Amino acid sequence: MTTSPTLRPISAQEHRDFIAGRSSASFLQTPAWAAVKSEWRAESIGWFRDGAQVGAGLVLYRQLPRVKRYLAYLPEGPVIDWSGDDLEAWLAPMVAHLRRQGAFAVRMGPPVVTRRWSAEQVKAGIADDSVHRLGDVPPLERSREGARVVAQLHELGWQQQSAEGGFSAGQPQFNFQVPLVDADGAPRSEDDVLKGMNQLWRRNIKKADKAGVEVALGERADLKAFHDLYVHTAERDHFTPRPLSYFQTMHDALAAEDPDRIQLWLARHEGDLVAATIAIRVGTHAWYSYGASSTEKRDVRGSNAVQWAMIRHAIAAGAHVYDLRGITETLDADDPHVGLIQFKVGTGGQAVEHAGEWDLPVNRAIYKAFQVYLSRRG
């Protein structure tokens, strides 16, 4: 009979070593992410069985106003074996530890896929007036593992959260990903990935090349140029930009953990910066994290050129997936978010639903007050 794992705090080095020994894990579960989220208190925890480490988690503690009670948050984690039928054996020691640390509630985001849709299905859904949400479209695949995780969490008293909420970091439940390996796990070629893109994407990549757009890796000093363009993008697209210091901290923390973890990409046309992006990679998983583009030279298609450079780099690095991160669930053609979905769908990948974020109230009275506090803030 397999013994249940035990849990204890671990050092950042133990945490790093465990992540390095796995195919991949979310960058939000690396110890370096603690330095990026400095407004949260952070702790690394590890699961052990028969003396060997079998799991790890980055816990971010956010204190409630005026009381020494915390929301304990594990974004896109923890990094454990989610495939079994006894999640309680993993989660019970974690909850007991976090309770001792003063947590009034635990929030986590199991890194488990529940459903997938092809690019063609998403495109057809946008074109169909009777379809309003991705969930209205029968999926390409339903994950048995994902369904098992969701069922167990319900049984254990965890509560599924909506993606909104100003207090939480709120990781996206729906992402768009380009598989870089085939169904048998064999690497896909650049040519194969390019052929999987829609005609507009392939044409725009060619157009950028013909126009003389040059894409290159940047250095830390180039973050200011990226940020200037990012602020311009924020004004155009009506979102609140993060300060330059945030990206400097992110770059320094992730690069210190692994020099290949974070890359800054710059696309220039005749000396003008037309697009810039930040990419992150942990093991076999590569992410497009942040992007910016100029309004003036949109016709040279710098955004397509820089994405293609990032995808090629991910293929060369042996990544299994290129992750364009979050999309909304809406497929209404008149919704302002649909343009971003259509941009990502053009890469020919898949829409992927994860299990989402789940809360376990540890102190129900404080948790209820916390919910009221959130609703008033909203």
TrEMBL record:
Signal peptide: none
GO MF entry, a single one: aminoacyltransferase activity
A Pfam family: FemAB
Keyword Cell wall biogenesis/degradation: yes
Keywords: Acyltransferase, Cell shape, Cell wall biogenesis/degradation, Peptidoglycan synthesis, Transferase
One example of a Gene Ontology biological process annotation: cell wall organization
Keyword Acyltransferase applies: yes
Entry's family note: Belongs to the FemABX family.
Protein's name according to its UniProt entry: Vancomycin resistance protein VanK
